Amino acid sequence: MDYPKLVELIPREKRRNTADKLVDIILSSKNDNKMPSDLAKIILYQWQQNLLTSELGLSALLKVAVLLEQEKTLTVLGELQLYEIADKIEGEV
Amino acid sequence: MVKFGIEFVPKEPFWKITYYAVQAERGGFSNLWITDHFNNRNVYVALTAAAIYTNKITLGPGVTNPYMVSPVFTAQAVATLNELAPARVVLGIGAGDKTTLASVGVEMRKPLTAVKEAVNIIRKMTSGENVVFEGGVFQIAGAKFFFKPRGRIPIYIGAQGPKMLALAGKIGDGVLINACHPKDIEYAVNCVKEGIYEVGKQFSELDVAAYTSFSVHEDLRKAKKAAVPVVAFIVAGSPSQVLERHEIDLKKAEEIREALKASDWGRAFGAVSPEMIGAFSVCGTPEMCVERINQLLKSGISQFVVGSPIGPKVRAAISLIREKIIPSFST
Lengths: 93, 331
What we know:
The complex is a heterodimer. By secondary structure, chain A is mostly helical.
């Protein structure tokens, strides 16, 4: 899945809210063991630099959210009316 | 002005704790404490990750003990961490928990002596001295680092009993008082003062921290629900004189103890009363928490540590503390 391409589909005004909701999904997940260490470090670096709404930050968040909690992520994308992204993710898995 | 500290338990993976650590640093917390239990992830690995991604928050184990971890190793760990985060490292050390130590076959022998000697050894090692030590608990034939430690590391004593509290006053740079209720904090601070005055120090020289079980939410029921499991374990582990001080039914406490032993969580948590929550946690809406912190401040504490569970959702709770609690104490 090309996550940076998916992130391009998120309108600017929705980026902050999307990042916020994805962070919630990731931090609330019980599937800690599925977190890839390299992506964890990318997310922490982007968080440290206040760049979680950047394309790199959002790509990492989206990828991890799908890995850890696919169903919840699709629901949130639906709530945010990011249907195209949700469809693409669903079609891929 | 009171400082705010926050405690994390490395039952959570490093990335969650580190995320929260960055959030806490931005939110105005000055201290980050990470617990040390053999059955969780390693405290120094968690601290290292947090140190890498933060810039100013003071951090350290809260608390380690000298039985499971040799004071020599603890000195090495904090001295190394202090290279990664210069002047940001502190060490919390206490006697540990008897039951946990017993589960790995470690005897809690002479706890006061052990903590006192450990502090002595750690101070000498982190000063770069060659340590030759003949104590009641520890013997060291000659130990010195092959590297030069950077600066002094403040040592906080984790204490509950009157003798350990007094010892903290005597030898500590700070004390971590495991209590939540104004009555308990007041009693503890008086014990600390006895130790302080015995050695001719000033009370203001010591950072006195109330290390609390904390739960905040705008909805009181949700805050309480999150606090219940932690309070159940505190009640089960409290001696009867502490329970009596808070007029807690000893039979109820025994019921919780037995239910926890049998892993009957529903019965254990169901037996937790509002009085128990009031005695063993700082719990409620932000306004209620501010009120309780104000009561604790009257005893002279200089740091308020927000400990587990923090709130039903940690990230949201940290935001709430930043927005509605810390600002009440910033002037």
